[in-house]
Fold each of these.
Amino acid sequence: MPSHTTPCIVVLSCLLLLLSLSQCQGLLSPTFYNKTCPNALNIIRTGVNQAVSRERRMAASLIRLHFHDCFVQGCDASILLDETPTMESEKTALPNLGSARGYEVIDDIKHELETSCPGIVSCADVLSVAARDASVAVGGPSWTVKLGRRDSTKANHTIAETLPGPFDNLDTLISSFANKGLYARDLVALSGAHTIGQAQCFLFRDRIYDNGTDIDAGFASTRRRQCPKNTGNGQLAPLDVVTPNSFDNNYYKNLLQKKGLLQSDQVLFSGEGTHSIVLEYARSPQLFEADFASAMIKMSEIQPLTGQNGIIRKVCGAALHSSI
Ligand code: HEM
């Protein structure tokens, strides 16, 4: 081989490496819609703020919707697809059925976006920005959302059935987050979203009736009043018993007092690997907010569809292209 070809090969390999790196990571950008839909972020924020001022709990529901989207084949808005004769939806999977909320808020925002700039903004990006705006709307942290996710054409009901559940033990929780590239610290920070929102009685009934040592007796007895042993499956209780409507670190302080509502909340404090992280967040609201924001960014970048992959849906509930 002539000696002058060696540097050329090295330069070429470097260029190819850079290209593949940028294809893996660099396609999401905070300015993705600046030219194509400059008003996109305002439209989403206005829609979220209106929805949260109508019903404060909606902030919680929107944050959870993003989580349940990203954990099932990545942040691709697959959770929003309606059932078709040939495709089971994620909406009807047990963790979502009668539980996930906020679909209509996202649909309305998407409708506004299609009026302003048809075929440009993905439903997956709407979910991600809405989760951030929902946090801000209830006093939580803000963060920069990178944009450019595209929407899937398919939902995955089977994976949605495996979303983390309230009866999971700590090892199971840690490994389901690890499967998505999230560490135990991310698990603890993200679970802090339970500083707002509500849960249905049948999801915490066992915990408040089993007279275990991992629950405060007074707290269990208060919760039993609205969650009878044999009825009232859908009766709601706040996930954060102290400040259910504001985004703060009381969720962690509650865990210290054995007042976590779900078993999957309380195990974060009783388990070895996460105990000290709960303590850190209970002591420092600033640290919690900073870590929550970083973990939300990580979660919102799980396996996005970018470039030529996926589509921009016309409406979020159906896999129809908005543009050709
Ligand atoms: C660690 C594993 C998790 C488990 C087992 C879990 C489980 C649950 C359950 C059972 C509910 C109540 C649902 C109902 O009653 O219908 C709930 C509510 C909620 N979850 Fe989680 N969750 C987890 C992690 C997360 C994460 C990572 C987030 C977001 C970053 C999140 C955000 C929320 C919010 C905000 C609510 C209240 C929703 C509302 O009021 O509409 N959760 N979660």
Note: Residues 181-298 form a domain with the Peroxidase; domain 2 fold (CATH 1.10.420.10).
Amino acid sequence: MATPENPMAYLLELSLRRIERERPEIANDQKYAELKGQLLQDADGHFREIQATYATVLKTQCNCGGPLEPVDHDFGRSGGMIYDSVVAKCRSCGSTQSFQFPKEGFISEARSAMALRDYLQRTYGVDYAGVAMSELQRRSVGGS
Ligand SMILES: [Zn+2]
């Protein structure tokens, strides 16, 4: 499930492993195990949605008949709605189109991540978001 091909789940699991090393008592916490399982499952579901959207982009042809390739991932909030889309560019004529993602996976993942973060904060005083961010920065600066 958490492989380097799914970077988000990989990062989540890495950060949780670090917290588990620092706070060994977490190993016996059923509630933690449950929240973690749910988050990793939702991260995987979200990842599958992204993969499916990319597969759709690659199967779609441009109006000119040329092949499309995903070039960007647009992610944000517009008028209170969270949106998530892939921007694809035609390799022949260079025109771009965007493809909307289904939103369920993203919303479930975000909800599970917040539930786990709140629980860790409340029960152990651990800042999970901070650990995940520092893990991300460490990895982008120092390589593996
Ligand atoms: Zn084209």
Note: DSSP finds four helices and three strands in the chain.
